Amino acid sequence: MGPNTVRVVALVLAVGMASTVGGPYLVQAGVPLLVVIALSLLVLAVPLLAIVRSERSRR
Length: 59
Prior knowledge:
This protein is mainly α.
């Protein structure tokens, strides 16, 4: 992974972690539940995809 890819992954994780921790507050503030769930799933998917991609590049 290049430096720009690492920065994008870090940004996605930071935004996603903030939205996951603040999920109940976001829902209470009027953010649709589906948006909060999508951000939470994105947070889980990004590291998993990075792991799968790095495993493929090792082979």
